[in-house]
Amino acid sequence: MTFELRILLVIGYLDLGFIALFSYFILIIISCILFIDYRSMSQRITKLNKLIQSHLGEIFQRELSLKPGVFVTIAKVDTTPDVRYTRVSLSVFPFKDSDYVLKTIGKEKYDIQGALNRKLAIKPLPRLVFQIDETEEKADEIEKILLQI
């Protein structure tokens, strides 16, 4: 091989190594930025979930009219990362009245949504989706099975 060809090959290897190292460095920087953004986003969503749970508790106390003896607790609030939807899990006591509670909330859903929208100062405003939390009911069933063993 000639001297010039050897120099070109060495420069070519150095360029490829430099490009690979540079692209690896850029990839690390981007992943760090995304991780920091993800952490701040998750903290924002967590705070928003707590705020929505608090406001919904107040709204349920004032505006939700249920028959006597039915108790509703907001068990969990999950908001999507794009803040478009919020899933609200409700714990109902007694559990057999959970269908009644869902129908009642379904009738008053727009009033509840409007009251929450007036309290929140964010854009976009999350749309509420209500569901029954069956965790306690399933735990009772498992406990009964374990007691029978």
In short:
The protein has helices at residues 3-63, 98-107, 109-119, 135-148; strands spanning 71-79, 85-93, 127-132. It is of the alpha+beta class. A three-stranded mixed beta sheet has the order 1-2-3.
Provide a descriptive summary of the structure in words.
There is one protein chain. Helix content is 64%, strand content 16%. The longest helix has 61 residues, at 3-63. The protein has a 3-stranded mixed β-sheet. A hairpin with a 5-residue loop joins strand 1 (71-79) and strand 2 (85-93). It has a single domain, classed as K homology (KH) domain (GMP Synthetase, Chain A, domain 3, 2-Layer Sandwich), CATH 3.30.300.20. By secondary structure, it is an alpha+beta fold. The model is unreliable at 5-10 and 34-38 (pLDDT under 50). The relative contact order is 0.11. The protein has 4 helices and 3 strands. The chain is globular and about 55 Å long.
Shape: globular
Share in helix: 55-70%
**Low-confidence residue ranges:** 5-10, 34-38
Q: How many structural units, i.e. domains?
A: 1
What is the CATH homologous superfamily assignment? Answer: K homology (KH) domain
- What is the CATH top level name? Alpha Beta
Q: How many helices? A: 4
Task: State the strand order across the main sheet.
Answer: 1-2-3
Look at the helices and sheets and give the structural class.
alpha+beta
